[in-house]
């Protein structure tokens, strides 16, 4: 499995890939949070793995080797990376297995269910919510790596439906479709590493969800296996035959079973993808433009509005790095665009004529607003780097800055209040520790009735990894409390995992949680599949 | 309650409204199924109601009067109408209640749960799947009429969200929105009589679902009450906070609780609505055109393709009735359009410029196909009559012809096989009784990955209402078996009700049904709400 060999342990992505901070970003960070006082050594060499406990015969490829167990112990949340770098991972799977068929998945579940062994499904292992983390348990734990279920199982061009094994990762899926002239159009930031089944299990949304929809809308049918039975939802364009069972698996995070194959709705591969950029004098001007555009129904594929701090950073590291920067800044100043400026990216995809028409239509719709076009260069740069951004976290840790992201969504009428209260919660979360937190925010997934808010925050690492994790946990706690108090959703596309689970009842209500529990109990009566995500209310931010 | 007083008992809609068959239709029917041998007397005077059993104090308006009990005994399926006309309704509710608030709904449920009384929720009472039918029971039965929960509870123009009491009917809902410049755009054929909560509970799709979406997509949030607890799903534009609980209520048909309010996504009221019509030489030409248009993404609001028999009837009663008919027929003959012709309606809505542009775009997309434009008259006529069509059933019963409809959906690649096998099943269902069945079919809800198929069938009524119902049941059984065997969905927008429930396990699988049962048990542990729909596998076509 060559792919696995190249994955970086204790960091994002592939060894050899990097996205170092620019000097401008480092200067900005120093101004915001002060100079670094410590740094986090890279690598994950120091982990001591306990001897694996025996697991039953699983009927498929299995490994209890240390590198496999280490590589499947944690997801990609900031504390996961900190623990891996520090050699302070508290628990490891006793074995990793690679079923090759849905029958093998069902077989593993049946054997583990009988033997009282816990099973954690592993797609790309990119959860940032503790969604795949192994915890210290009294019973053995097997991680089920689904990467061998990655075939194109069927392709129905007439109906534009493609069925894939759930373990297929983004690039392989798109390559398979592209060779036939199609695309799924689902590009979460984790796309290079995350799997179709993982997208479904976490209700993922890609960066072009405005045009291509959330994964929720792309799934036409699916198959799943659980100790309580196997579920097959045939692809159907529309139905009124009772509640939509596939919607129950969407967002189930493994608690209701393991998704083995997914039938997705595909579209013709667009020949062209263009992103216009504009600057608005204020967040409110920008937000009004986004709302106008998304409510108009003009077929854009992306709208991404950065708040003033994020715009400042973007200008500093991107546009600001060009020689024309001074000129641009003077021109913008004349147009009334200064410190409060907000950058908007407006994307369209299709044949060149469609792209031109769509962007022209969009331009007319916000003609009366106060946006100033910056052309297509910032968008092209963003598109080029969009899957490299996560590497920045590793490079910043190297120089003593911790960064993470979190997201929510709310109706338009509540959006600005949510943004302000979450921003304040994050910014003030480390006051007790006399540390500052820098916060960036953008809207990236707008809908006619509201939008997502995506926050990126930065703080200084402490000399001790435990203290750094405690700082992170304080920020997460403050932000999640603010989100719940504002009536916004706990997550727009990262999921619940272990880390948001204590707040789920605030959003779903006790009846909602009871419903989910009853389904989990039906499908997994002995609670062996990923038992601590979604429905386990124990706080595990620091686990 | 003035509205109730004007509802026709033992027939569709309002007293005084009619949609009589044209002589051309009657002639066509005689050719297809032979001359009528009997007729079904109108009215529902003969019913003998048993003395109502006592029900507990319900804490809201209650009636045990005969007219109220009679008016809430059955839905609007063909056998319901036959039984009402014949005075052969086997069971009646013991009481009807009208809660005015969600608290009153919850109160009724709690009292009935304690007292072992069954509760059937009643929105508009228009189910054509036995979804609200009272059956003979050992315990008392209360019908909960939700018409008093019909207020606009909130209107968030910025987010384009409106919250209504679930009992509001189509016209009141649209009037409320229209006064603010908005529309929901949900127009099922039952629209004048059916309720928002009913649309949600049955996963309804309106005639313009191509443009406005299914009710599934329109619901942003909802509230429901069940004996097991109250559920509130806050309106959210998008979320990854676990499975989408509102999707569980969509299609739950009352088994999971009673929906008390719904927040819907609304849109600006279009100033213009235009329907172009075209004739294609064959079903396959027409189907290709529909698929091309829907997969192109051109923002049409409706595509409705009639098969050759339905086209023949439409021409006979509509276009054929005009003086230009002969001329048109000769012209079409020259263009190669004869007996196999299929009528396509292509709808667009918006401001006049948008409508023109959309229809022009659509025209270009199917330029190379063999369609011949018939202009906008047939569409205008269809639009004018679209809520009057259901009255035809009553008028036909008066002259001895029974008619009903059923629908399904399937991916494009399977659609034609499904159409043929269901058509054959319906057409041949009464061979044993030496009776013929005439079948019409259309596609009315296309999606990029497939479409609905809507069948209308006609057969002669027998002298005995029981025999007529037996004929209907034979057709339903044959058609539903064919749908299930073809792997199509049991219903595209009518729901499961009592009548399709025996087939649900074939579609959802035993695991799927077990999941739904576990949710029902959680929310309604004593199985008091609408206990015979969705999950009760007993055959009740003739009940």
Low-confidence stretches of chain A: 1-5
Q: Let me know the number of strands of chain A.
A: 19
- How much is the radius of gyration of chain A in Å? 23 Å
**Percent of residues in β-strands of chain A:** 15-25%
Overall pLDDT metric of chain A: 95
Overall 3D form of chain A: globular
Largest contact between chains: A-B, 88 and 88 residues
How many H/I helical runs of chain A? 19
CATH topology of one domain in chain A: Alpha-Beta Plaits
Instruction: Report the major sheet of chain A.
Output: 8 strands, antiparallel
CATH-derived architecture of one domain in chain A: 2-Layer Sandwich
CATH class of one domain in chain A: Alpha Beta
Q: Helix share of residues of chain A? A: 25-40%
- Distance between the ends of chain A: 30 Å
Q: Assembly state here?
A: homodimer
Structural class designation of chain A: alpha+beta
Detailed description of the structure:
The structure is a homodimer of 543-residue chains. Chain A has 19 helices and 19 strands. With 543 residues, chain A is an alpha+beta fold. Chain A has a domain at 272-385: Alpha-Beta Plaits (2-Layer Sandwich), CATH 3.30.70.3450. The longest helix of chain A has 21 residues, at 465-485. Chain A is globular, with a radius of gyration of 23 Å. At the A-B interface, β9, α10, β16, α17 and β18 of A face β9, α10, β16, α17 and β18 of B.
């Amino acid at each position: 499995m060559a792919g696995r060999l190249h994955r970086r342990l204790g960091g994002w992505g592939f060894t050899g890939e990097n996205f170092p901070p620019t000097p401008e970003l480092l200067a900005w960070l120093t101004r915001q949070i002060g100079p670094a006082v410590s740094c986090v050594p890279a690598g994950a060499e120091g982990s001591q793995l306990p001897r694996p406990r025996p697991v039953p015969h699983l009927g498929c490829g299995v490994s209890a080797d240390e590198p496999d167990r280490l590589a499947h112990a944690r997801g990609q949340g900031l504390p996961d990376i900190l623990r891996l770098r520090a050699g302070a991972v508290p628990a490891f799977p006793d074995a990793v297995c690679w079923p090759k068929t849905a029958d093998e998945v069902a077989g593993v579940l049946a054997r583990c269910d009988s033997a009282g062994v816990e099973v954690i499904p592993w797609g790309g292992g990119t959860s940032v919510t503790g969604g795949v983390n192994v915890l210290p348990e009294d019973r053995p734990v097997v991680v089920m790596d689904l990467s061998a279920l990655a075939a194109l199982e069927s392709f129905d061009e007439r109906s534009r439906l493609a069925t894939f094994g759930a373990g297929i990762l983004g690039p392989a899926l798109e390559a398979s479709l592209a060779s036939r002239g199609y695309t799924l159009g689902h590009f979460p930031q984790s796309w290079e590493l995350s799997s179709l089944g993982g997208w479904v299990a976490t209700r993922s949304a890609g960066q072009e969800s405005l045009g291509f929809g959330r994964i929720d809308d792309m799934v036409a049918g699916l198959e799943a296996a659980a100790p309580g039975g196997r579920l097959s939802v045939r692809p159907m364009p529309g139905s009124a035959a009772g509640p939509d069972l596939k919607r129950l698996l969407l967002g189930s995070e493994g608690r209701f079973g393991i998704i083995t194959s997914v039938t997705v709705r595909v579209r013709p591969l667009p020949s062209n993808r263009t992103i216009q950029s504009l600057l608005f004098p204020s967040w409110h001007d920008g937000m009004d433009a986004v709302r106008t555009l998304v409510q108009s129904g003009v077929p854009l594929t992306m709208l991404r509005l950065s708040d003033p701090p994020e715009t400042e950073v973007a200008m500093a590291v991107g546009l600001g790095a060009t020689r024309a920067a001074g000129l641009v800044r003077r021109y913008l100043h004349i147009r009334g665009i200064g410190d409060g400026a907000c950058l908007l990216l407006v994307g369209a995809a299709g044949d060149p004529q469609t792209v031109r028409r769509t962007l022209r239509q969009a331009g007319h719709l916000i003609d009366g607003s106060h946006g100033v076009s910056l052309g297509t260069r910032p968008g092209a740069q963003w598109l080029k780097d969009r899957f490299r951004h996560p590497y920045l976290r590793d490079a910043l840790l190297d120089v003593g800055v911790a960064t993470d992201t979190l997201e929510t969504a709310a109706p338009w009428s509540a959006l600005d209040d949510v943004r302000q209260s979450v921003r304040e919660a994050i910014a003030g979360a480390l006051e007790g520790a006399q540390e500052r937190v820098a916060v960036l925010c953008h809207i990236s997934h707008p809908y006619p009735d509201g939008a997502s808010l995506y926050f990126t925050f930065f703080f200084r690492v402490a000399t001790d990894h435990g203290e750094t994790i405690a700082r992170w946990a304080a920020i997460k706690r403050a932000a999640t409390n603010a989100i719940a108090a504002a009536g916004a959703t706990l997550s727009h596309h990262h999921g619940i995992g272990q880390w948001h689970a204590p707040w789920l009842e605030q959003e779903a209500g006790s009846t909602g949680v009871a419903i989910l529990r009853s389904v989990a109990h039906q499908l997994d009566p002995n609670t062996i599949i990923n038992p601590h995500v979604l429905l386990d209310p124990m706080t595990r931010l620091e686990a």
